[in-house]
Design a protein that fits this description.
The protein has 137 residues and is an alpha+beta fold. Helices cover 18% and strands 39% of the residues. A hairpin with a 5-residue loop joins strand 3 and strand 4.
Length: 137
C-alpha cells in the first residue's frame, strides 16, 4: 500500500457515534475495532473504539478513536495527522525527522496489532501518528 496522510480524530467516548455520523455524511466503508478486541473484553473500556477507519467513495480517509482512561483530551489535542503504509524505510524517515526536536509520546515500535506505531508532537506542536504495516504478500 502506498503511504497516505489523513486526519486522525480523538473522542471521549463518542467515537462510534461520530464515525457513524461521518459515514452517513460522506458515505463509504466504515470499520471499527474496540479496546476489548485487543485486550480484556471485560474491562470498563472494552466497548470504546480503539480504531475506526472510514474510506469514502470520493477517496477521503478519516480515522478516529476514543481516548483511554487517564489520557486527558482537550481541544487542540483531538486531531493528529496520520502517516501510514507499508514502506518502512520511507515512514521511519518521516518519523525521525518529525520527532527530532519534538516530544515522543509513544515510541515507534511493534504493537499488539502487529504493526510498528508511534506518536509524537513535532517541534511546532503538531501531533503525528506513524503506522507501518506489513507489506501485502
Amino acid at each position: 500500500m502506498p503511504s497516505r496522510l489523513n486526519p486522525y480524530l480523538s473522542f471521549d467516548g463518542d467515537a462510534r457515534s461520530a464515525m457513524e455520523f461521518y459515514a452517513d455524511v460522506f458515505g463509504g466503508t466504515l470499520t471499527m475495532n474496540t479496546y476489548g478486541e485487543y485486550g480484556d473484553p471485560d474491562a470498563p473500556e472494552a466497548d470504546r473504539i480503539m480504531h475506526a477507519l472510514l474510506e469514502t467513495r470520493s477517496g477521503y480517509t478519516i480515522m478516529g478513536a476514543d481516548s483511554q482512561a487517564g489520557m486527558p483530551l482537550s481541544r487542540g489535542d483531538d486531531v493528529a495527522l496520520s502517516l501510514s503504509g507499508d514502506d518502512g524505510d520511507e515512514l521511519r524517515g518521516y518519523w525521525e525527522r518529525l520527532s527530532d526536536g519534538g516530544t515522543v509520546s509513544v515510541p515507534l515500535e511493534k504493537q499488539m496489532w502487529g504493526d510498528e506505531f508511534g506518536m509524537c508532537a513535532d517541534r511546532f506542536g503538531v501531533h503525528w501518528m506513524v503506522n507501518i504495516g506489513q507489506p501485502a504478500t
